[in-house]
Amino acid sequence: MPAGPQLVRALYTPEERARRDATKWTLVQGILAPVQFLVFLISLGLVVRYLLTGDGFAVATTSIVIKTLVLYTIMVTGAIWEREVFGCYLFAPAFFWEDVFSFLVLTLHTAYLVMLFAGLGDPRQQMLVALAAYASYVINATQFVLKLRAARRDERIAALSAANAAGSRA
């Protein structure tokens, strides 16, 4: 027997969408996310260069530290954004799994910093931890991009539904 139409909960309630659109933290996240991605791409290139050639350890290391600081910044501002929109700093139902995975990303980036500043592991091992952190970041960034696309889809569906409802009353 075929299943009936499935109702999918929209990512944002109308009230949450209004708060999202009204808060300055939405713009902050919209700026920081591509900045972080650019820093990631540059740093990834420098890390891979070091691993392939043995050249550029200092610049690769500096780039990882910068990437990690940008990550910490976007995590703090993201928590503030989540509080403004959903009423809690982390683990709002709409972003629960993204937040869970973000902690893995933070853990791996922080593990790199601990290794670096405590002198743990050799440079290659440190760079491999950075690559693991970067792989987790790519997965997490993909989660957020897919969530953003879902939100845009929800908004298009809501707009079409409103237009259809208005048209049927005419």
Task: Tell me what you see in this structure.
By secondary structure, the protein is mainly alpha-helical. The chain has one domain. The chain is 82% helix and 0% strand. It has five helices and no strands. It has helices at 14-22, 24-53, 57-86, 96-118, 123-169. It is elongated, with a radius of gyration of 20 Å. The model has no long low-confidence stretch (mean pLDDT 92).
Q: Which labels suit this protein?
A:
single chain; 82% helix; 5 helices; mainly alpha; 0% strand
Radius of gyration: 20 Å
Stretches where pLDDT is under 50 for at least 5 consecutive residues are: none
Percent strand: under 5%
Mean pLDDT: 92
Provide the structure class.
mainly alpha
Number of helices: 5
- Any idea how many domains? 1
By DSSP, the count of extended strands is 0
> What is the share of helical residues?
over 70%
Order of helices and strands: HHHHH
Terminal Cα separation, in Å? 37 Å
Shape: elongated
The largest sheet, given as strand count, sense and whether it forms a barrel, is:
none
How would you sum up this structure in a few lines?
This protein is mostly helical and 170 residues long. It has 5 helices and no strands.
Any chance you could write out the topology, listing elements then pairs?
Blueprint (H helix, E strand, L loop, with lengths): L13 H9 L1 H30 L3 H30 L9 H23 L4 H47 L1
Helix pairs in contact: 1-3, 2-3, 2-5, 3-4, 4-5
GO molecular function: hydro-lyase activity
InterPro entries: BCHF
Pfam family, one: BCHF
